[in-house]
Each structure stands twice: as structure tokens, then as C-alpha cells.
Design a protein that fits this description.
CATH superfamily of the domain at 3-160: Acid Proteases
Number of strands: 24
Strand order of the largest sheet: 5-4-10-11-7
Helix content: 25-40%
Mean pLDDT: 78
Shape: elongated
Largest sheet: 5 strands, mixed
CATH architecture of the domain at 3-160: Beta Barrel
């Protein structure tokens, strides 16, 4: 089959003369007979219908018969056309018209023209569509010999079991997952782990999706709770993995099922001719747990509060309705349930705030809640003419300036002798090593990964030594203190002895030392009051005053002072004064001094 567009067709067939081939028709249409095995079929979706079409690169247009038009596309009005077709026998064919249809193939979507003729054969996929829709020729080569009857039979099978092959998540029927734990096991409720700021929105979106699909449901109270670990996918979304090793795994009654060896599997498959591989998306989420098991599988994760605060002047002391597209909030903020005992502190504060209002809360999905959802997504019809302030420009420029980039980390990670070994060990497998430089990474070997050539510990990037000072300086630029710097660092990056490096940097910073809190005053040490005079004496030197030093002796009971003018303050002169004092008043049981050299000398100790 071939079709040419021209106002004059000068050559139709080599067997015809030039005079016979001349025509004023705007198009020419040839039809040839093909063997069944020569037919190549493609299966685009036309107006959402899986529509088998014969591929013909010799035809310039795509064509269907009126029979196919009436069966599938009668709802589309025919448009007039001036195209005239001619068969290889010279018979002219005037199309009934053309329709514009939506064609989908291999993630491609186009609006294309489809011509309708009377008494035509199978639908034709011509060159006009090939210019817009790119086909997988390797797949076509592999499937070109498949009989159309087999295709139709497969299509009928898929149609009969459409509920199995639909895009929505399915549920395994006829069974529920059960497990048991030790009878003496104590419930464990592990608080939610801090989520890095950059992952909070993807984690919230994933929880909303799981709730919407019925995989998760909200609960008000649970004796068991397991923290989740977000794993970033290639497309930027996250996969939520439950860390059951800290809750139910240690107390789980394991079932020791004998796994078959690979040799046994090959022996079982011996003689097979047809094999199939099934890729089940979210396979484990298609399994349903029984009620007893569900109580052990609890994890923890709002514009409503903002709206109530915004319109507090109008809502207070009036009954109103809160409409949300987040179903768990109907349980948390509902009037029929109390505040969950173990709910997050922020949720408890919000619940207490809403308790001062008379309201009811109802759930509507996003499609039904279109007025609020639409406004949240509606762009402005005009660009606001706002003057950019210098401060705003500076802040934006600071945000856009990154201290280091992924290329820098990848480059210096590979150059560092220790981290380059860690890269190789992650890819080839870890072995026991006595190298002290590898010990911090070895104890974390099960949590280390490689992303774009950079080493990752969980969600934190491991910064090579060459870039550590630069990262520390950026972290320290705000002089936020040791605690805040450690908190920010633990959300984004890590390297061995990071905490001590932060402490050393802050302690050596003069500005940080000036603004830090002063140490508290030392507590006073009160002396016990003696019960008689001359039991405890306090002595010290005062001066110089008027060219002299003075030895002051005070009785702690009577507060009686004795003051002596000292020409010299040697230990021998001090002993002489004290000996005369003790001769007059008697010996004292205790003498208190500041341990000056006169009081701790060898002669004083002997005295």
C-alpha cells in the first residue's frame, strides 16, 4: 500500500505509459495482497481504546473503514476532506471524511488525523502517524510473527480479567497474614525518629497516599509503635520502611520454612516450554493482615488549624464545619474520640486549641473538595509588580550559594585513600579489617550506600576530609552554638569525630565565647560558728598601707581583731608575732589562712 500527495502524478506503475499515469487527483491509493505472516500489527490506544492496526510504511495516511468508525468512534463527527484515493486498478475512492483522534503509544500522546473510507480492510497505521509517534522497532521485529487471532484472544482475556490488570493496588484474596509473638513479650512504643527537613514533605505525601489506598489507617491509641525509615527513590519520592528490629522482631515466633535449593527448582522446571515472570508492584502491600497482627504493626506520622486561627473573629462561639481531604484528621480532631495519650505534642496543642470551638469535622476527597483544592493550585492571572528589596535579594543569593556540590564530594571521595577503600568495599563486599581508619565506617557498614558516587550514611552524606573545614565554616557562619550546629549536621552530613570538631570550632571562636552564657557563681562555703572564743582564728596580711604591712588576726567567735605592724613579712617574723599572741590568750584549735608562703613554709609547719 502506498500513497503520494501531489497535484500531478507522473508515474504510477512501471507497466503503464506516461499518458496513462497522468492524473489531476490530489492523492493516490494502492492496495496489494499480503500473506498473513507478513502483516505487522501495532497496538496504539486510540481515544483510550486498545486498537490493533496494520503497520504500512508505504501508506502516507492512516485509514479505517466505516465499520470500525461506527463501532468505536461514532461519537466523533466526520470532517470533510478534499483528498481522493485511487487503487492500483485505477478505481477512485472518495473518503467519507476524517476524524481527529487522541493516539497514545509508549508514553507518547498526540492528536492525529484518521481517514474513514467505505468498505475498507483492517485499520492502517500510515506514515503520517509515524512522523509523530515513534515506535519500538525492536519490539515490532520480535512480535511481527504473532498471529492476529492470538492478539485478539489475549485482548479478550485481558478484558475479562480487567480488575486483575488495572493500575490500582490489588489485594490477595482468600488469605490473611498471621504471626505470633512470645507470650511474655512486653509492648514497645518507639517514638517517631526525626525526619530531615528536606524529606518531610515527601514523607507526608507518601503517608497520605498509603492512607488513600487503604494500606494504612489511622488509630487513636496503640501499645506498640515502630519507627519508619524513609528511603529515597530515583524519582524523588520516598519508600517508608518499618524498623521492626527494635520492636516485634526480637520477640517474634519465627516459622522455619525450608527454602528449596536452586538445583531443586531447576529439576522441577525441567521439560517446561513456556515461562512467565510476574513483576508485582508493591507486592507486600497487597497482603492483608488479620486483626490480631494489625495491633503490632503501628507506625506514627494542617491547614485546618491555620484556617481556624485566621478566621477566629468569625468562628468563635459559632458552630461550623471543617472539611478536609486528609481522612486521619477526622479521627484525631473528631468529637467522638479523645486526645490520643501518645500523640505528638504539636497535635495535642492543636487539639486543645480546637476544643475551644464548636465544630464538626468531615472528610471529602480532593475532587469533591474542589473549591479549596482549586484555589490552592490556581495560578495568578497576572504577574504582581513587586519591588525586590535589597535584603530579599541578598537572602536569595545566600540560599543559591551552596558551599559544596555533589561533583566536589564525588571527586574528593574518590581521591581520599580511606573513603575510596570504603567505596570499593561497599561495591565488592566487606571483610574484617584491623585498619583503624576504616573502623568508624566498618561499624556502620550495613547502613552505608552510594548515591551518584557519594557515600551516604542513611540520609546523610559523608563529607571527605578535603571539604570538611569548608562545611564546618558554613555551618558555623551563624554562630548558632554547639547544640544547634550538631542538630543541623545530623540532618544532612557526617564524618568521624564530627561532634568533637564542632565543639573545638565553637570553643576556639572568640565571638561564640563572648555571647555564650557565663558560668554560674561558685557556691559560698559557710563556716560553722565555734561554741567558744579563740577556737578558730583567721589570719592574713593586709597592705601595704602608709609604707607598712599589717598582720591581721580575727577570732571567729568574738570577732576580736588583733593587728600588728610588720616591717618584714617573713615566716620567722610571723612566727614570733603568733608566739607572743598565744602566750597572752592561749593556743587556738584551728588557724585558717590563704596558704601564703609565710604560712606554708617549713618553719611554719614545724611551729
Amino acid at each position: 500500500m502506498s500513497l503520494q500527495k501531489s497535484k500531478k502524478v507522473h508515474q504510477v506503475d512501471e507497466s503503464k505509459s506516461d499518458s496513462e499515469s497522468e492524473s489531476d487527483e490530489t492523492a493516490l491509493f494502492y492496495t496489494t495482497q499480503k500473506r498473513k505472516s507478513d502483516v505487522i500489527w501495532v497496538h496504539p490506544k486510540v481515544e483510550g481504546i486498545d486498537f490493533p492496526m496494520e503497520l504500512d510504511t508505504g501508506s502516507a495516511l492512516s485509514i479505517i473503514s466505516t465499520e470500525f468508525y461506527n463501532k468505536h468512534f461514532k461519537h466523533l463527527p466526520l470532517q470533510s476532506t478534499k483528498v481522493v484515493m485511487k487503487t492500483y486498478t485505477g478505481e477512485k475512492i472518495k473518503p467519507k471524511g476524517l476524524i481527529t483522534v487522541e493516539v497514545e503509544q509508549n508514553s507518547q500522546k498526540e492528536q492525529l488525523e484518521l481517514y474513514v473510507i467505505e468498505n475498507g480492510g483492517p485499520p492502517l497505521f500510515g506514515r503520517s502517524w509515524l512522523e509523530k509517534i515513534k515506535l519500538d522497532w525492536m519490539e515490532i521485529k520480535n512480535l511481527s510473527s504473532v498471529d492476529v487471532e492470538i492478539r485478539n484472544e489475549l485482548k479478550d482475556t485481558l478484558d475479562r480479567h480487567s480488575d486483575v490488570f488495572k493500575d490500582a493496588l490489588g489485594t490477595v484474596k482468600g488469605m490473611e497474614v498471621k504471626f505470633s509473638i512470645n507470650d511474655d513479650a512486653s509492648p514497645k512504643f518507639i517514638k517517631a525518629r526525626p525526619v530531615p527537613y528536606s524529606l518531610r514533605k515527601p514523607v507526608d505525601d507518601e503517608i497520605d497516599r498509603l492512607v488513600k489506598e487503604g494500606i494504612l489507617e489511622s488509630v487513636d491509641f496503640s501499645d506498640w509503635a515502630t519507627p519508619v525509615v524513609p528511603v529515597v527513590k530515583k524519582n524523588g519520592s520516598v519508600r517508608l520502611c518499618c524498623d521492626f528490629k527494635v520492636t516485634i522482631k526480637p520477640v517474634l515466633n519465627s516459622v522455619q520454612y525450608p527454602l528449596p535449593r536452586i538445583e531443586d527448582l531447576f529439576a522441577t522446571l525441567s521439560g517446561g516450554k513456556q515461562f512467565i515472570k510476574i513483576d508485582l508492584a508493591n507486592a507486600y502491600q497487597q497482603l492483608k493482615f488479620d486483626k490480631e497482627a494489625q495491633k503490632y504493626l503501628v507506625i506514627k506520622a494542617l491547614a485546618l488549624v491555620f484556617g481556624v486561627k485566621k478566621f477566629h473573629q468569625y468562628l468563635y462561639s459559632r458552630k461550623f464545619t471543617l472539611v478536609t481531604d486528609h481522612r486521619p484528621l477526622t479521627k484525631i480532631f473528631g468529637s467522638k474520640t479523645g486526645i490520643p495519650t501518645l500523640a505528638a505534642a504539636r497535635l495535642q496543642r492543636w487539639t486543645i486549641f480546637l476544643a475551644a470551638h464548636d465544630y464538626e469535622i468531615v472528610y471529602k476527597n480532593s475532587e469533591s473538595n474542589a473549591n479549596a483544592y482549586g484555589l490552592s493550585q490556581l495560578p495568578l492571572k497576572f504577574a504582581p509588580n513587586e519591588k525586590c528589596h535589597t535584603v530579599d535579594i541578598f537572602n536569595i543569593s545566600q540560599i543559591e550559594r551552596l558551599p559544596i556540590k555533589a561533583d566536589d564530594i564525588r571527586k574528593y571521595t574518590r581521591k581520599d585513600p580511606t573513603l575510596s577503600k570504603v567505596l570499593d568495599l561497599i561495591q565488592t563486599g566487606w571483610y574484617k579489617t584491623q585498619d583503624p581508619a576504616l573502623q568508624p565506617d566498618f561499624i556502620r557498614k550495613d547502613e552505608l550506600t552510594i548515591h551518584q558516587g557519594c557515600l551516604m550514611w542513611g540520609m546523610r552524606v559523608i563529607v571527605p576530609p578535603k571539604l570538611q573545614l569548608q562545611v564546618l565554616e558554613e555551618l558555623h557562619s551563624a554562630h548558632s552554638g554547639i547544640v544547634k550546629m550538631k542538630e543541623l549536621a545530623r540532618s544532612y552530613f557526617w564524618w568521624p569525630k564530627l561532634d568533637s570538631h564542632i565543639e573545638d570550632l565553637v570553643e576556639s571562636c572568640e565571638e561564640c565565647q563572648q555571647i555564650q552564657k557565663m558560668p554560674g557563681p561558685a557556691p559560698l562555703h559557710p563556716w560553722s560558728f565555734p561554741d567558744a572564743p579563740w577556737k578558730r582564728l583567721h589570719i592574713d596580711f593586709a597592705g601595704p598601707f602608709h609604707g607598712h604591712m599589717y598582720l591581721v588576726v580575727v577570732d571567729s567567735h568574738s570577732k576580736w581583731p588583733e593587728v600588728f605592724i610588720m616591717k618584714t613579712t617573713t615566716a620567722e617574723k610571723t612566727i614570733e608575732i603568733l608566739r607572743g599572741l598565744f602566750c597572752r590568750y592561749g593556743l587556738s584549735l584551728q588557724i585558717v589562712s590563704d596558704n601564703g608562703p609565710q604560712f606554708v613554709s617549713a618553719s611554719s609547719s614545724t611551729f
